[in-house]
């Protein structure tokens, strides 16, 4: 590695994946077209995670599905709407140089195997398995709360690919470190923490729940300290690269996640108000911070907080 290379300062390693900088798009945010991924890459993003894809297309829930709560926090229950494996593999077939991780969602290990068999010949950097969506039945967190299901699903993906697998965990009924441990023992290489948190909001004029699905997931500013705590605990106790996610809206948040133990950081809800340029701004400011602190590479920050008991 050439420490004098100006691109070296922000580059990070996630298992076998080398990223030019630690910023990533969180799953389910923005569109799922190759053209938007290319625009993000032009704005200096490190890597893109797609919307969670299922075997068959899913329609999702009726509106309203996304509610701003103020203070940079959101409540959503989109319902994992996506075009399904066949249409999405066509969409990505032209991909050559964008570092794309495909997010997978399903209700059985068979469904996960089927998807990986189709996707694995595409030019992608790996998979993120969504075992943490908190508001769709028989998928996401319902499986993430069952260690046996986690074990079966991760093994099913592992035997069908040599590419890195990240398991996306959330705050369910199982301790997040235990969930991550089961995933790693089953063959996951990376852990992404965290997804949205199961939440609800009620309109006092209509006296009705605001989401059509009643229950949704809380994201944005309000969940950042929970994300930081999960990243800290997982990365301190387990030997695994962790991708931090939850409430990131600035370069300072990226640094905070890395000091907690994240090797890379995903950005989601803030894109609803910031526009894509946020990635260019954040990467520029990360570089300034690294230089100001006299670091050779931003990875030197990973897990500095672990020394505090
Ligand atoms: C509208 C919306 C849709 C989402 N869809 C997905 C999804 O398909 N798969 C998934 O794993 N996470 C999904 N998420 C969760 C985000 O990827 C992320 O984990 C969460 O929003 C926390 O990050 P943030 O606070 O930066 O938004 C979604 C979040 C939002 C707000």
3D architecture notes:
With 309 residues, this protein is α/β, with parallel strands linked by helices. The chain has one domain: Aldolase class I (TIM Barrel, Alpha-Beta Barrel). It is 31% helix and 20% strand. The protein is built from ten helices and 16 strands. The chain has helices at residues 34-42, 85-92, 109-119, 141-144, 147-158, 176-185, 224-237, 251-260, 271-274, 278-292, and strands at 12-14, 17-19, 23-25, 47-49, 66-70, 73-76, 100-104, 126-130, 165-169, 190-193, 197-199, 202-203, 208-209, 216-220, 242-245, 262-267. The protein has an eight-stranded parallel β-barrel with strand order 3-4-7-8-9-10-15-16, surrounded by seven helices. Strand 5 (66-70) and strand 6 form a beta hairpin. Helix 3 (109-119) packs parallel to helix 5, helix 5 packs parallel to helix 6 (176-185) and helix 7 (224-237) packs parallel to helix 8. The longest helix is centred in the last third of the chain and has 15 residues, at 278-292. The protein is globular and about 50 Å long. The model has no long low-confidence stretch (mean pLDDT 95). The structure holds flavin mononucleotide. The site of flavin mononucleotide has 27 residues, from strand 6 and strand 14.
């Amino acid at each position: 590695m050439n420490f004098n290379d100006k691109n070296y300062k922000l580059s990070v390693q996630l298992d076998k994946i080398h990223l030019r900088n630690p910023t990533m798009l969180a799953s389910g945010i923005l569109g799922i077209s190759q053209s938007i991924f290319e625009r993000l890459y032009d704005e200096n993003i490190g890597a893109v995670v797609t919307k969670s894809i299922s075997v068959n297309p899913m329609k999702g829930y009726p509106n309203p599905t996304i509610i701003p709560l103020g203070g940079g926090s959101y409540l959503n229950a989109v319902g994992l709407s996506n075009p399904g494996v066949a249409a999405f593999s066509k969409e990505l077939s032209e991909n050559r140089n964008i570092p794309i991780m495909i997010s997978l969602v399903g209700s059985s290990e068979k469904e996960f195997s089927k998807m990986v068999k189709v996707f694995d010949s595409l030019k992608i950097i790996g998979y993120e398995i969504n075992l943490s969506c908190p508001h769709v039945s028989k998928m996401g967190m319902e499986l993430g709360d069952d260690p046996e299901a986690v074990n079966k699903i991760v093994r099913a993906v592992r035997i069908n690919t040599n590419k890195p697998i990240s398991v996306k965990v959330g705050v369910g009924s199982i301790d997040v470190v235990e969930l991550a441990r089961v995933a790693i023992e089953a063959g996951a290489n990376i852990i992404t923490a965290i997804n949205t948190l199961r939440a609800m909001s009620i309109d006092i004029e209509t006296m009705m729940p605001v989401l059509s699905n009643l229950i949704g997931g809380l994201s944005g500013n309000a969940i950042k300290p929970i994300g930081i705590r999960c990243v800290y605990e997982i990365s301190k106790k387990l030997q695994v690269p962790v991708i931090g996610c939850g409430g990131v809206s600035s370069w300072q948040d990226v640094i905070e996640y890395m000091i907690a133990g994240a090797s890379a950081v995903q950005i989601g809800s803030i894109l609803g108000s910031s526009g894509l340029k946020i990635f260019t701004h954040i990467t520029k400011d990360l570089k300034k911070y690294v230089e100001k602190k006299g670091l050779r590479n931003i990875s030197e920050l990973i897990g500095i907080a672990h020394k505090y008991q």
